[in-house]
Prior knowledge:
The chain is α/β, with parallel strands linked by helices. The protein contains 12 helices and 10 strands.
Amino acid sequence: xxxxxxxxxxxxxxxxxxxxxxxxxxxxxxxxxxxxxxxxxxxxxxxxxxxxxxxxxxxxxxxxxxxxxxxxxxxxxxxxxxxxxxxxxxxxxxxxxxxxxxxxxxxxxxxxxxxxxxxxxxxxxxxxxxxxxxxxxxxxxxxxxxxxxxxxxxxxxxxxxxxxxxxxxxxxxxxxxxxxxxxxxxxxxxxxxxxxxxxxxxxxxxxxxxxxxxxxxxxxxxxxxxxxxxxxxxxxxxxxxxxxxxxxxxxxxxxxxxxxxxxxxxxxxxxxxxxxxxxxxxxxxxxxxxxxxxxxxxxxxxxxxxxxxxxxxxxxxxxxxxxxx
Length: 325
């Protein structure tokens, strides 16, 4: 029996091409100190919460749409998402004047549903898991002749997300570690591809909620694993299974994947608000939770460490409740 050929990984050239393609759509987000304390200068925060549509996802969505001709997009685009990719695709499609349909879980946060609709997308609800909304999206895709823009497991999406890694190395050439929140793994895959090509000795660490540790379980098993269920306040990190391609990147390029518990996620949201004066959603704060789990505080980080704040789409009442706790 012949073993399956390894999946081709996204290259640095792919990522650089994506950076040129999305210039003018995605923002170059700031890399800021993780604390206002003058003694804490080694922890940096990559502020994708300040990105167009409030999360890194616009990078991949814009890169993928740019690869199609206008005639190919005439009937519209579709995706399935718990929220941040939904808003990103809706935003990118609106900029191009293309109709967008987004299948979201019935449990999607209202702030993300409203954000998606505000960009003009047609929102359809289906189930609570990624598999359920993917199935409905595929049905609608074929029924209406739409172009599918998957949330993470596609080389064009991964290359777009990898532009975060390019910017990190340009702004912090001596970076020692990069902490990356992990949902389906698109951001982790792209960032790892960029970082390891430009700074091979830098460590790339993926971070998952303990209640949704699909990449950790998959790496331990040696192949993608599907969780029976997932639960966390980090609603953007709840896919039950990593993608085949994102898993291949993680296995080849990522140094470690760690988990953080719910209290750590809340503590990280509060820490970022208090120490860096930045509002971030729990999914986006997972990276900081892992840094605090390892080092204790920004003041204890001795070498340059970057934590990616992957998103900031959180309702005001929710952030208020976490900060008041």
